[in-house]
# Entry
Amino acid sequence: MDDAMTERTKTNVAAIVGGGVIGGGWAARFLLNGWDVRVFDPAPESRRQIGEVLANARRALPAIYDRALPEEGTLVFCETLEEAVRDAQWVQESVPERLPLKQVIHAAIANAVKPGAIVGSSTSGFKPSELNERSTKAIVAHPFNPVYLLPLVELVGDKVTCERAAGILRSIGMHPLTVAKEIDAHIADRLLEAIWRESLWLVKDGVATTQDIDEAIRMGFGLRFAQMGIFETYRIAGGEAGMKHFLAQFGPALKWPWTRLMDVPEFDDTLVDLISGQSDAQSSRYSIRELERQRDDNLVGILRALRINKAAAGKVIAEHEKSLVVEGERDELPVTLYRQVPPSWTDYNGHMNEAFYLEAGSKATDGFMDLIGADEAYIARGMSYFTVESHVRYLDEVHAGDMLTATTQVLKGEGKKMHLYHRLFRGDGAMAATVETLLVHTDLNARKTCLPAPEVAEPLAAYAAAHENHEKSGAGRFVGEPNKSREVTSTPA
Ligand code: NAD
# Structure
């Protein structure tokens, strides 16, 4: 699909020092956003582990976008730290959370890295001033597991470096949050620690099992937190009287207090056995990789829901997607859709469900509308096209992970009417479907049809003229018409 892809210059290199759970996630995030990645991790298991994280990421990350991510970068495992970092624009340290080890590693990175490169540490708790005792370069760039799906990165340290880092992180679909001053454990882990500590007490005191606590989170406030944080949530909880009323009502309770505050339960064998025993009873029927896939599938669903409202992390995805350009031609027709088929588009027959052929056609229409200037800004001015009729021909199976390309031919583009013929191709070149669709131009305020503005009508007419003599076999069919030109090979359920 070379002609439909944006030309990519492979100049971006990220070095991953420490390729465990978090380093593997960073490697996947950079690779799937087109960066070349060099990993240094002396552990023999590291290649296998990164391979497994990458397989999960390839399945999950493209599913949150309606456009293909850039061509994947190249992954290289290096024998030395110096070899990994010397050409990198971004070095991310993710070695175990031990300060003396991190300090030695950062001194070695500072010696080997090229000037101007960003050096980030994934540390959950240490401050930049501690990490930099033997060097000067590192900022904290603290991500969240799975790094390839969750956008948040807390940035702490030198302001200018953090600003540059923020730009790079946005370009790979992440959300940088710069912390105003350095503090142990930054922001999010402070919040998580409070929940974690209370959870340990509740298990130790026999108030709740590990499963009860997980239900208490995921059936209630956990759902709220994905879309509004604690302050917006509590503002609403204050009712029409708002935040002041909420504070007056619940503020005094903090003095009682309900929680164990800074008390930490003794981590003796009894507590460790109690918690790990309950956790095994709760989840040991699944492997860690299975749990990761369950987590990723749920996160993809949540992120896609947030995207619809451009809320919270959904807004980050929508903004990032604008940088993923779909362009080029195929068979002298414009490419209007290029994307990976997500697992959620497949059904019990193990292939893409028929509804998503139409969804792909609808996205191709959106892509074509962008091309003729009937884009977001035009729609915001109160004009758009409404679909009045569609005909889908299911020609071949499509599976999760296939790369789908659509081309769009204008059959008619005159007056209020826009008659389009989309062809959907799989990554192997086979034509999987055609979607023929008739749209009429509509005034969104009056909810009545009207003529398009000249800046849309003219490019549409130009496409219609250019496509007039292009072959149209398969267009204009009625449902059930005998197929003269080719046999339909399958009909997705
Ligand atoms: P991990 O144990 O899974 O991975 C650490 C990796 O570092 C291992 O693969 C190990 O072989 C490698 N390593 C050890 N010494 C090394 C050296 N000298 N040079 C290169 N590699 C070396 O740990 P993790 O969970 O990935 O945590 C890494 C960092 O990320 C920590 O600072 C942690 O606080 C932070 N972090 C963890 C999470 C999380 O949820 N696990 C979340 C955010 C941040």
Q: What stands out?
A: Residues 3-186 form a domain with the Rossmann fold fold (CATH 3.40.50.720).
